[in-house]
Design goal:
168 residues; mainly alpha; Serine Threonine Protein Phosphatase 5, Tetratricopeptide repeat; 9 helices; 77% helix; elongated
Length: 168
């Protein structure tokens, strides 16, 4: 009976530590998850089922942490990869990529429009409107896109936005 209580007590101590490591893993913080899983594996050796799982996740963390560089050479490389970064929610990195693409082709309205979109998602409405204005100056088509772009919805009633897109 005492052995069973000890087993249950070990499990009760191990579970929160394992859960904390898994939260970091699911958030994509593989560095923190790796540290927590390693610490977990060393502290809770009696919980073999958890330790075995922790080792599997440790190897996944190590694999995902490896530097997976994407070689970007062309304007389209930077443009497409910036969209990928936007979809991941990495707005800062996407802006860096878009600025590089803009250096390559300064009169590309689609880059300016996408930068406006990213600034809007970041909540920087002044920069958003600045880049949107520039995009529309290059190609009036972006006026129509902006009027229907859900990302710009917070600005649809904004006087500056309406003026830039001439919605009303």
């Amino acid at each position: 009976m005492n052995k069973q209580k000890t087993k249950k007590s070990d499990y009760e101590k191990a579970f929160p530590a394992y859960s904390q490591a898994m939260k970091a893993f699911h958030k994509g913080d593989y560095q923190k998850a790796e540290e927590l899983l390693q610490e977990f594996s060393e502290k809770h050796v009696s919980e073999m089922e958890f330790v075995d799982r922790a080792k599997v996740y440790l190897s996944i963390c190590q694999e995902r942490k490896k530097d997976k560089r994407v070689e970007l050479k062309t304007f389209d490389d930077y443009y497409q990869y910036s969209i990928h970064k936007i979809n991941e929610g990495d707005y800062e990195e996407s802006l860096k990529l878009l600025k590089k693409a803009l250096e390559m082709k300064p009169k590309q309205g689609k880059i300016l429009y996408l930068m406006a979109d990213v600034y809007c998602m970041k909540g920087d409405m002044d920069k958003c409107l600045e880049y949107l204005r520039k995009a529309i100056q290059i190609d009036k088509y972006f006026r129509i896109l902006a009027q229907n772009e859900r990302d710009f919805e917070p600005l649809w009633e904004d006087k500056k936005f309406i003026l830039i897109t001439r919605m009303k």
